[in-house]
């Protein structure tokens, strides 16, 4: 198989990301978004909001993380942030998916995609920390825009939203402060269940 054929096959394979439905509703609240829609939204946010990163970041690398980070869900499926049971097998499922998907590419590109995906997962670089902050900001904003629809459906608590999103402050204190306002407003409205923190 030629390099171009490998790339084209990968491009067709990742079209499946459009079929992976997340738990977050789009802003109209008419339906849930797909992983592909989430990745696009996240990538645009990386370009628009880079000035709020705690440290200088390579914006193109953050955009790549946005576009690559959920490709593994083609095989592994989307694990809802608050699904404690699904979280137990998430890493194994996603590692297997990364091995299969990124090996479809020419070796140099496959290694780059795998490296970017793992860097995002580990959150050890400024880019990964900022990307992780944006990845969490996007569904919180949509939950707020839909009057807490998904939070209410799943009975999400204050403790859950704060603890599962706390790492945002490592990527962007400004975004964390913004999220806290959203959490406080939705707790007050009863969209997020109040807990004894």
UniProtKB/TrEMBL annotation:
Keywords attached to this entry: Hydrolase, Metal-binding
Pfam family, one: HD_3
Ranges of residues in domain HD: 14-176
InterPro entries per UniProt: HD_domain (IPR006674), YfbR/HDDC2 (IPR039356)
GO molecular function, one term: 5'-deoxynucleotidase activity
The keyword Hydrolase belongs to this UniProt entry's keyword annotation: yes
GO cellular component: cytoplasm
Cited PANTHER family: 5'-DEOXYNUCLEOTIDASE HDDC2
Record-given protein name: HD domain-containing protein
Source organism of this protein record: Candidatus Anaerostipes avistercoris
């Amino acid at each position: 198989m030629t390099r171009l054929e490998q790339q084209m096959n990968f491009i067709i394979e990742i079209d499946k990301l459009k079929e992976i439905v997340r738990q977050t509703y789009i802003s109209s609240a008419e339906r849930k978004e797909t992983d592909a829609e989430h990745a696009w939204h996240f990538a645009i946010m990386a370009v628009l909001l880079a000035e709020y990163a705690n440290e200088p970041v390579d914006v193109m690398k953050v955009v790549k993380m946005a576009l690559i980070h959920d490709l593994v869900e083609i095989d592994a499926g989307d694990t809802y942030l608050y699904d404690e049971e699904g979280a137990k097998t998430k890493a194994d499922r996603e590692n297997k998916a990364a091995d299969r998907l990124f090996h479809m590419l020419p070796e140099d590109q496959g290694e780059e995609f795998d490296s970017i995906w793992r860097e995002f997962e580990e959150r050890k670089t400024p880019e990964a920390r900022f990307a992780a902050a944006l990845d969490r900001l996007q569904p919180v904003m949509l939950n707020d825009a839909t009057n807490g629809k998904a939070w209410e459906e799943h009975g999400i608590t204050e403790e859950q939203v704060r603890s599962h999103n706390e790492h945002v402050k490592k990527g962007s204190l400004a975004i964390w402060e913004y999220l806290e306002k959203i959490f406080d407003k939705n707790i007050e409205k009863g969209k997020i269940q109040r807990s004894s923190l």
